[in-house]
Amino acid sequence: MNGGDAEVRDGLRYPWAQPPASGEVLEVADGVLWLRMPLPFRLDHINLYLLRHEAGWVVVDTGMNTAQTVAVWERVFAEVFQGQPVLAVICTHFHSDHAGVAAWLTERFHCPLYMTAAEFRSLHVQVPDEAPPAWAFVDFYRKAGFSLEQAGEFHGAIQNKHFRPLNCTGFRRLREGSELKIGDRRWQVLIGSGHSPEHACLYAAEDGLLISGDQVLPRITSTVGVQATEPEADPLRDWLDSLERLRSVPDSVLVLPAHERPFFNLHQRLAQLQVHHQGHLERMLASCDEPRTALELMAVLFPRLSGRFDELMALGETLAHANYLISEGALVREEHGELRRYRRAPAQAVAPDPQRVF
To answer: For 24-180, where are the alpha helices, taking DSSP H only?
Structure first.
């Protein structure tokens, strides 16, 4: 289960020093192929996993809705599957790089799609493409400290069709603890949240394999953000709780992530992710002796950004940390005209106020 060039970095052990070339596959376990699917932006790849099953294949995640993705799949069908069909598609979660062409694959092969219920619903909830953008969308960014013009640019940034998966008409539900028998393996479904509503990981206990999707990544951290669709959400709490639950999986598993390279030492990575977010929380709290907007706090946590899409992600993460601290009673949020500002809670405060209806 290694390529002969293992590497240890930051406490994690990588069995393969190099990933397969873009669009190519590498066998990481018997009947489990790692496909490096290209993406059209700075994070230039997603790892998909192809599981051999009887006279066909089960696909875990799909890539984005782009012509390049379809071209890679056509080559995989011919050169890797050699005419054998796709028997099922499993999507770990609804994000466009994971479910972008799920509908195309299932329609082409007349096969089922497996997802959790919350992820399937989220797949069909898109930011409306009307112009100008809806009031609630603009209000979200204006309260954070952005201008009306910048809010419009954010709206434009997410209208790219690459970020809009094709619509699927039906699915088979994945639930926590349910099992899928694929080939000779039994994969248990483990559910996490925070990065997405009901993210599915696949754990093959007897073989020591964990397909982690975006729930655990090496080297980089998954986006945990608050979006305009649910401005009062507390995804960071969901995320940290999910990381803690994953400690029930043995540290010895080979983690097969959606980005970067497969690795060992799961528990070390879980601890690193927890420390990373704790550092963000501490820096934010230290910056709030005076009231700060989300835009000002974003500059504290993410001082180097390039472009509107980076700002979208960074604002979501900033608000996730702010909402967590509010729920802990450590921050208070105040309305200042059209702006929201955050400041350290008074020392006597022990709990946040109940959620206001308006």
So the answer is: 67-79, 96-99, 102-109, 117-123, 135-144, 148-157
Q: In sequence order, what are the residues at sequence separation of 6 or more whose Cβ sits closer than 8 angstroms to the Cβ of residue 298?
A: 144, 311, 314, 315, 318
Report how far residue 135's alpha carbon sits from residue 123's, in angstroms, rounded to the nearest whole number.
22
- Going from N- to C-terminal start, the domains of the chain cover 7-126+171-277, 282-344
CATH assignment, 7-126+171-277: 3.60.15.10
Residues 6 or more apart whose Cβ sits within 8 Å of residue 195: 93, 214, 215, 222, 223, 224, 235, 239
Confidence of residue 156 (pLDDT cuts 50, 70, 90): confident
Helix (H) or strand (E) holding 37: strand 32-38
Asked: is 282-344 a CATH 1.10.10.10 domain? The reply is: yes
Separation CA 214–CA 312 (nearest Å): 18
Is the predicted pLDDT of residue 353 greater than 70, yes or no? no
Q: Which residues pair with 59 in a beta bridge?
A: 50, 89
